[in-house]
Design brief:
About 50% of the residues lie in helices and about 15% in strands. Strands 7-6-8-5-9-11 form a six-stranded mixed beta sheet, sandwiched between helices. It has a five-stranded mixed beta sheet with strand order 2-1-3-10-4. Helix 4 packs antiparallel against helix 11. The protein has about 350 residues and is an alpha/beta fold. It is globular and about 65 Å long. It folds into two domains: about 160 residues, Bacterial extracellular solute-binding protein, family 7 (D-Maltodextrin-Binding Protein, domain 2); about 150 residues, Bacterial extracellular solute-binding protein, family 7 (D-Maltodextrin-Binding Protein, domain 2, 3-Layer(aba) Sandwich).
């Protein structure tokens, strides 16, 4: 009788544990993530996948993230995918919607820096201090923001170091800041995504293209871009987001939201930057080993870019005020001071 009772008790304990496990499984939340880079890209392997793992670990498996096998829309539509809930989490480039994100233009101007981790941390702190309540960002929970450590000028056939070298040359570019910059320098901007750069360069449609160093390698442009002009503080930059649908975020339990808060925000933004800080020097080393030409922009070219930047900032201050930023200059000064401090640590 005692043995039977013991077996009955053990069976009841096992059944209770099974029911508890089943209840936890049924209450688990699976979030969908839409991404537009291939699964071999470092953003996928070194940033997005670790993010999914951190969320699952932080919530003890109660919240998991599934990266969809194919993007649900083109890259410029990924903010809307998150805002409207078509996908729970997305990432993308603020530059793809320049009119919506006028407030972010300041971080894409020349001289924004070349330390991507410091940039990304500084941009997160700036977002939290000045932009979190801006109407442009309504409808999402911002998980991270990031930058890529300074884009540079690349040419297929010659070394470009002076304003005269840039004049009348056709450069592929990807956004309005780059367009204004090239136009002011007397170059001919040609808008196209980076994925089109190879065929445009090979066919002679453009003479050069704007990229980070890692982008030259990751888009396999080594054979068509052999001359690289380096601006010590960056020729231009780009701003990125990782965002979650606001309603989906609100629907998570308080415990899970608190757990996820520990792996997003400034630390996730820093992780974004660290990946680019690893990729850019590695790409430079590969290009140097292949015999590519590297040259620093001359003081004359840097001065020309600085003058253009000053005009850009003045114009942006007025545009940002119209976009709901109370004191754009103070926000820019905050970013610059924060970046300088972080980069020096």
């Amino acid at each position: 009788m005692i043995a039977f009772t013991t077996r009955l008790f053990k069976g009841a304990v096992a059944a209770t544990a099974l029911l508890a496990a089943s209840a936890q499984l049924s209450s688990a939340e699976t979030l969908t993530m839409s991404s537009w880079v291939p699964p071999t890209h470092f953003v996928h392997t070194d940033f997005l996948v670790p993010l999914t793992e951190k969320i699952a670990e932080a919530t003890e498996g109660r919240v998991t993230v599934m990266i969809l096998p194919a993007p649900l829309a083109s890259p410029p539509q990924h903010w809307e995918l998150a805002r409207t809930g078509v996908a729970d989490i997305t990432w993308g480039n603020f530059t793809y919607e320049p009119e919506r994100f006028v407030s972010m233009w300041f971080a894409e101007f020349p001289n924004a820096g070349t330390n991507a981790e410091a940039q990304s941390r500084a941009l997160w702190q700036t977002y939290e201090a000045y932009l979190a309540d801006n109407a442009a960002f309504e409808g999402v929970k911002m998980l991270a923001v990031g930058m890529f450590g300074g884009g540079q000028l690349h040419h297929g056939k010659k070394t470009v170091t002076t304003p005269a070298d840039v004049a009348n040359q056709k450069f592929r570019m990807g956004g309005p800041i780059q367009e204004k910059l090239l136009t002011a320098l007397g170059a001919v901007p040609v808008a196209a995504p980076a994925t089109k750069a190879y065929e445009m360069l090979e066919s002679g449609v453009v003479d050069g293209s704007l990229h980070t160093m890692e982008s030259v390698v990751n888009f396999r442009l080594e054979d068509v871009l052999k001359h690289h002009t380096v601006f010590p503080k960056g020729f231009y930059d780009a701003t990125f987001f990782v965002a979650m649908n606001g309603a989906k975020w609100d629907g998570l339990s308080d415990a899970d939201k608190a757990a996820i808060e520990g792996v997003i925000g400034e630390e996730l933004s820093a992780a974004w930057g660290r990946n680019f800080d690893a990729q850019n020097p590695a790409a430079t080393g590969k290009l140097e080993a292949a015999g590519h030409t590297f040259a620093e922009a001359t003081p004359e070219l840097i001065a020309a870019v600085d003058a253009i930047q000053a005009t850009m900032v003045a114009d942006w201050v007025e545009a940002a005020k119209a976009a709901g930023v109370a004191d754009p200059q103070a926000m820019l000064d905050f970013y610059n001071t924060t970046y300088t401090t972080l980069a020096g640590q």
